[in-house]
Amino acid sequence: MGRRSRASNVATMQSGGETVNSLKSKRTKHNGFSGKTPAYDFASGVFPSGMNSSTFGYIYKIIAGTQPNSTIMNMLFFQLKKLLRDSLILLVIGMSITLTFSGSSMLRDWNIFLNSAVYNLAIGLSLWRGIGLVSTLLDKHLPPGLSPERNLALHMAATLIYSCIAIFLVNTFLYKWLFGYNLLDNLRLFTIIGTIQLFIVIIITGVHYVVDFLRSLREAIKEQEALKRESLHHKYEALKNQMSPHFLFNSLSVLSALVEQDKVRSQTFIRQLSDVYRYVLEQKGEELVPLEKEMEFVRAYIYLNQIRHDKSLKVEINITDLRGYVIPMSVQLLVENALKHNEASEKNPLTLTLERSEDSTLEVRNTFQPRKGIAGNGLGLSLLKKRCNYLFGRDVSILNQNGSFTVRLPITDKPETAAAFIT
C-alpha cells in the first residue's frame, strides 16, 4: 500500500493537482442550487445568498423532481411573496403613468379603474418576467468566452425584440377584451402607447444592463490583473528554479569532473549552460516565444542533464515542424517536472519523448517511475495550465496510464491568437 500511495502522490504532484491553497479559489457562477438546499429564512424573507431566484428555475426544478419535497412549500411561498411584491410595484408604476395621461376621469368609473389595473399588471408582468426569462436563456446558451460588449449588445437586442412582440400582443388582444376598443383601428394611438411603453422598457433595462456590464467589466479587469500577477509569479519561479543554488551546484559539479576527463565536452557543456541562462534572461518579459527558440533552449537544458545522468536518461525528440508559438520555458518546465519526480538509474533508466501532434500540441511523455521521498507543490504546472487556458482558450492535457505520464501543451500558430483572448 505504501508504494502505491507514494506513486499516487507523485502523480498528483507531477500533474499539478490542487495542492496549493492559493490556486483552489476559483470563481463559480451559481445557476441554481448547489449541494444541500438551505431552508427558507422567514425572518429575512429571502433565501441564502448564491441561490438563483428565477421563478422559472424554481418551477423547473420542482417539476423535474430535483429538489427535496421538504423545500417545495418554502420555495412556493418565497416565489408567491416575490410575485406579489413585483405585482404591487408594477401596479403602482403603471397606474401612476395611466393617471398622468388620463387624468382623474379614470377614478370616477370603478370598472375602468379595475380594467386599467388588470391591463397595467398584465403589460408589466409580461415585460418584467418575460425579459428576465429571455436574459436567463441567453446567459445559459451564449458561449462563455463572449466579450462583455457583445454580451451587452445581444441582451439589449433580445430585450427590444421581445418587448415589441409583448407590447403588440397585449395592446392588440387584451386591450380590446378589457375596454372593448381595438387599438389597431387607431394606429396613431396604438403607436403612441406602444412607444411610451417601449421607451420605459429601454430606460429601465438599459440602466440595468449597463450597470451589469460595468460590473462584469470590472470583474474582468480584476481577473486579468490577477492572471498578470500569476504570470509574473510563474516567470519568477522559472527563473528562480533555473538559477537556484541546487541547479547551479549540480551543473558546476558535473563541469568540474568533466574538465579533467574531456576538455572538448566540457567546453560544450559551458556553452550550453550559458545558453540556458541567456535564454531565461532574454525571455523574461515575453508572453509567447517561437517554438524553434524554445526547443533550442530545451535541447541545451536536456544536454546538461544527459551529461549529468549519462545512461540513466534516454531522450527522443521527434519534432520537425517548429512553426508556432508557446509560453516561454513551458516545455522546459515539463522536462524538469519529469526529471524531478521520476527515478533515473542505469538499471531503471528514465525515457523521455518529445513529439508534436497533429492537433497543434506538443507532447512530452515519460515513463512513470515515481521517485521516493520527493515532495512538491505542483505550483509550476498548475500556473502553466491556467496561463494556457488564459492565452489560448485551450487546456493542458494530462494523462497517466499504462506506465506512461503524458502532458500535451497547446501551440498557437500566430501570436495574435493569444492576444485575442487577452483583449
Q: How does the helix and strand content classify structurally? A: alpha+beta
Topology as H/E string? HHHHHHHHEHEEHEEHEEH
Computed CA radius of gyration, to the nearest angstrom: 32 Å
Counted by DSSP, the helix tally is 12
Main pleated-sheet profile? 5 strands, mixed
Tell me the number of structural domains: 2
Mean pLDDT: 75
| CATH domain fold name of the largest domain | Heat Shock Protein 90
Distance between the termini: 49 Å
Tell me which CATH architecture of the largest domain applies here: 2-Layer Sandwich
Outline: rod-shaped
How many beta-strand elements? 7
Identify low-pLDDT runs. 1-13, 15-54
Helix proportion range: 55-70%
| Percentage of β-strand residues | 5-15%
Provide an overview of this structure.
- Helix 8 packs across helix 9 and helix 9 runs parallel beside helix 10.
- The protein has two domains: 169 residues, no CATH class; 180 residues, Heat Shock Protein 90 (2-Layer Sandwich).
- The radius of gyration is 32 Å and the shape is rod-shaped.
- The chain has twelve helices and seven strands.
- Strand 6 and strand 7 form a beta hairpin.
- The strands form two sheets. Strands 2-4-5-7-6 form a five-stranded mixed β-sheet, with helices on one face. A two-stranded antiparallel sheet has the order 1-3.
Characteristic key phrases:
5-stranded mixed β-sheet, 423 residues, Heat Shock Protein 90
